[in-house]
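RECORD TYPE: inverse folding
INPUT: structure tokens
STRUCTURE:
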């Protein structure tokens, strides 16, 4: 969120489930310093974000350094890591009677894909239906569930693990610049990615 005075505020969930937040002014050249203290304030994630919109890609982007120490109580990535990651930001706009994602009209107009992570077997891409009111339905007849908030653009849900049958939770955000939703799912000791996009 960016205020009229040029103050940018970010509240985010990282792919390991930890929370970060930042509020700072945007410089005249469009750069914004981001620095967060996740992992019980033992690690950090930070770098420079540049507000320079590119249609079909992002409204702002940058490269962040992410350091996670060894934190034994954590469920994911207990051995810690140091890595660089690309950060992409997209404005989110929700208007009455306007779909938040420009998917084809009708049923079976979207696809949900799970990738990477540490599951022994990944589920096949799933065909879903998204209507103008943000309701997501699956015709597979299993325990898949997904809820989308039109107000915030956040979504969450769960899908059945094809190997164990256990439900795997996921959450993500609508990324309107790329006309899709992106997020992560909870694996065993690692997390993986999810993509919610128009059906091909």
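DESIGNED SEQUENCE:
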């Amino acid at each position: 969120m960016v205020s009229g005075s040029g103050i940018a505020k970010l509240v985010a969930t990282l792919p390991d489930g930890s929370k970060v937040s930042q509020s700072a002014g945007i410089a005249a050249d469009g750069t914004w310093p981001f620095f967060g203290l996740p992992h019980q304030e033992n690690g950090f994630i930070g770098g420079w974000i540049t507000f320079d919109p590119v249609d079909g890609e992002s409204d702002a982007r940058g490269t962040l350094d992410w350091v996670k120490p060894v934190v034994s109580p954590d469920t994911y990535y207990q051995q810690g890591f140091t890595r660089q990651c690309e950060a992409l930001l997209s404005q989110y706009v929700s208007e009455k009677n306007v779909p938040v994602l420009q998917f084809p009209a009708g049923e079976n107009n979207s696809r949900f894909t799970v990738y990477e992570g540490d599951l022994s077997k990944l589920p096949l891409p799933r065909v879903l239906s998204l209507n103008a009111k943000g309701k997501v339905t699956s015709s597979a007849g299993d325990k898949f569930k997904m809820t989308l908030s039109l107000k915030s653009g956040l979504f969450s849900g769960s899908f059945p693990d094809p190997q164990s049958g256990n439900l795997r939770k996921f959450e993500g955000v609508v990324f309107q610049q790329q006309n899709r939703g992106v997020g992560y799912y909870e694996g065993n000791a690692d997390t993986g990615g999810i993509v919610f996009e128009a059906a091909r």
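NOTES: The radius of gyration is 18 Å.
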